[in-house]
Design goal:
362 residues; alpha+beta; endopeptidase fold (from Nostoc punctiforme); eight-stranded antiparallel beta sheet; single chain; Jelly Rolls
Length: 362
């Protein structure tokens, strides 16, 4: 009888185990979602007990760009040509640059979302600073303008006192860009201190390129996913994603602009870019499409972000785990159970960061 080598047996057993594990992963990825856990159901209730205020249907807003009479700057040079700037141009800090003021009228004391925009450019300042006139004193926020150019970036939500207020920009010693700043009286505030923005900034401040994304009824046009260059970008993904802001959260619901849960939101957004995503964060992570990213420092606008919210060490729960879209500067756009609607909020409040995926856009 031929002797069977120990190495051969070991290799055979290893191959059988590999096949078994691969089948197990596929089964987990393709299985139907089971019933939600008690914790998941609890988080879907009590929004009124968590959120301290309501967002008005037509919130106050004001936009100030570098061509406005409410803009003041010393030591900045005006630039009139920039494909991704807001309006007709922008201003760039020189060696003699002083602080910039965007003068805002705050009609009443409440929380306001603050958005800023600058043209794309890797040579832009990486440590510019925005001074927000918060009720408790100026709140300085560092802004890396070498990233997230050509789109409205959420700086945060702040309580502002009624009156004339200045949002200031300091160069931080780099090539700071002064383009446009906007405040919107839409911010929601949670009892634990987290905030969220629920209004689409492009509704209030769309330049020529932004407006071309919508038809006469205000709906996204068929060609809305392409830039002037013809190739969709992460900024284009965010334009589409922000059109869903304010849509009520609906557990295991997927009706465009009526009720959406987290995976429904990402599914609807990426459908516009030629990607057919399954309606589950587990399925979206396990599917064989998309480039996986694990480090947060590598995230770009438009990446799909996953969270292991129940912190069980595996992304396997269709109800307790979460998916969102990276919106730049630490923000995500997602259907939030906490706020009960699609919002832009800070990613850090979720915890359990698992990883992200970058999909090809068409």
């Amino acid at each position: 009888m031929r002797r069977i080598s120990l190495v051969g047996v070991t290799m055979f057993v290893a191959s059988i185990m590999a096949v078994f594990l691969s089948l197990l992963v596929v089964a987990e990825a393709k299985s139907e979602p089971g019933p939600p856990t008690a914790r998941a159901l609890e988080e879907l209730e009590g929004v009124e007990d968590r959120v301290l205020n309501e967002s008005p249907k037509n919130p106050y807003h004001q936009v100030v760009d570098n061509s406005s009479s409410n803009f003041e700057a010393k030591g900045y040079q005006s630039k009139q040509v920039a494909g991704s700037a807001f309006g007709k141009g922008y201003a760039v800090a020189t060696e003699k640059a002083g602080p910039v003021s965007f003068k805002m009228k705050v009609p009443r004391t409440r929380y306001y979302s603050v958005w800023a925009r600058w043209p794309a450019g890797g040579e832009n300042a990486q440590a510019a600073r925005l001074g927000i006139p918060a009720a408790g004193g100026t709140k300085w926020e560092e802004v890396d303008q070498s990233k997230d150019g050509g789109m409205w970036v959420r700086i945060g939500a702040y309580k502002m006192q009624k009156g004339q207020r200045d949002i200031r920009l300091e160069s931080g010693g780099g090539r700071a860009v002064a383009d446009a700043v906007m405040i919107v009286g839409d911010a929601l505030v949670g009892k634990d201190g987290r905030t969220a923005s629920v209004a689409d900034p492009y509704t209030f401040a769309a330049d020529e390129e932004d407006r071309s994304s919508y038809d006469s009824s205000g709906s996204l046009s068929k060609s809305s996913t392409t830039t002037k260059a013809g190739q969709p970008t992460g900024a284009d993904v965010l334009r589409v994603a922000k059109r869903h802001l304010g849509t009520p959260y609906g557990h295991n619901r997927c009706r465009n602009d009526v009720q959406e849960d987290c995976s429904c939101h990402t599914k609807l957004v990426f459908k516009r870019f030629g990607q057919s995503l399954p309606d589950s964060p587990v399925y979206q992570w396990n599917m064989d499409r998309g480039y996986k990213i694990y480090g947060k420092t590598r995230l770009r606008a438009g990446d799909v972000v996953f969270h292991d919210l129940d912190r069980d060490g595996r992304l396997r729960s269709h109800f307790a785990d979460h998916v969102s879209i990276w919106a730049g500067r630490g923000n995500i756009i997602h259907a939030s159970t906490y706020f009960g609607r699609v919002v832009v909020s800070e990613e850090r409040y979720l915890g359990g960061y698992w990883g992200a995926k970058r999909f090809a856009l068409r």
